[in-house]
Amino acid sequence: MLLVRSIWNGAISFGLVSIPIKLVNATENHSISFRQIHTEDGGRIRYRKFCELEDREVTGQEIGKGYEDSDGTIIPITDEDLAGLPIPTAKTIEIVAFVPEDRIDPLQMDAAYYLAAGGAPAAKPYTLLREALKRSKKVAITKYALRGRERLGMLRVVGDAIAMHGLLWPDEVRAPEGVAPDADVTVRDKELDLADALMDTLGEVDLEDLHDEYREAVEEVVAAKAAGEAPREAPAPEAGGGKVLDLMAALENSVRAARESRGEEPAEDAEVKHLQRSKTSRSSPKDTGGKKSTSTAKKKTASSPRKSTSKTSQAEKKSTTTKKTAAKKTPAKKTTSRKRSA
């Protein structure tokens, strides 16, 4: 923390208590940055700043701020003009209220900062404010000025430090009008049960285990091209990835895939049991005991003549053949007699 350069020095106004603090960034950006180049020869593309009146390039020390009026007139504004604004938040983080943390809409959250005590005299009041926030289980709503504008902030305790989240003004958050589906959709209880099962299966995650896979892939591409090698090809999309499933099937497959990825046993949830039972009851007539006994009887019947045939004599075969022939002729005679009587 001592190596982080402060971006703003001032004080927290806690009633009549003033706490000298230094504002430092609580986050850092690990994104890979690219330079613009000329695609034909790889030359760098640079933007140079020219003065319109003198038609020459100017340095950063020569550049200041100016406000353009409605008629196009530029009104110069200096840092001294902004530093002398007649508002208390120019160099002070003013605490205006204490509220429960759930009163803050996450949509209002902006940049995050740590507040470092500004020297030894600030240690006691800094600790007092930190412990008061802990015991009250509330957050402090503040107003402060930074980079040319007044902002809202929220103070909360993080470990042994006080952190400040920049907040957007309420009128800077858009209403979600026209975002939700216009169609009248009804969600069934079974669908909600499967969604709950999927949520339970996915469970919780330690955010420390998550990492930026996109950045790692870009780093691999850069390293490969720097070594004169071909970048690794992207994996082929899964077969049937574009196939449209009904919602219930998609939820069931999602629950199954989530459990398999975690190496868990099949679901034992009540709603999944219910679905499995209903599927079993539909398929049960195919596996009835009657069919099994019938097939067994057929097998026995088919096998018994072979055994008896091997043991019988030629005379028995002839008598059997004679009986069958007689049995075939008898129905024919009956049929003939019926036709005559008609």
Automatic annotation (TrEMBL):
Feature: compositional bias, Low complexity: 291-313
Q: Name the SUPFAM superfamilies for this protein.
A: SPOC domain-like
Q: Where is the composition biased (Basic residues)?
A: 325-342
Name the keywords, alphabetized: DNA damage, DNA recombination, DNA repair, DNA-binding
Tell me the Gene Ontology biological-process terms attached to this UniProt entry: DNA recombination; double-strand break repair via nonhomologous end joining
Stretches for region Disordered: 255-342
Output compositional bias ranges, type Basic and acidic residues. Answer: 257-274
Q: Which CDD domains match?
A: KU_like
Which molecular function GO terms apply here? Answer: double-stranded DNA binding
What residues does the Ku domain cover? Answer: 55-184
The protein's role, per its UniProt record = With LigD forms a non-homologous end joining (NHEJ) DNA repair enzyme, which repairs dsDNA breaks with reduced fidelity. Binds linear dsDNA with 5'- and 3'- overhangs but not closed circular dsDNA nor ssDNA. Recruits and stimulates the ligase activity of LigD.
UniProt family annotation: Belongs to the prokaryotic Ku family.
Q: Which HAMAP family match?
A: Prokaryotic_Ku
The record's note on quaternary structure and interaction partners says:
Homodimer. Interacts with LigD.
Q: Which NCBIfam families match?
A: Ku_bact
Tell me the protein's name. Non-homologous end joining protein Ku
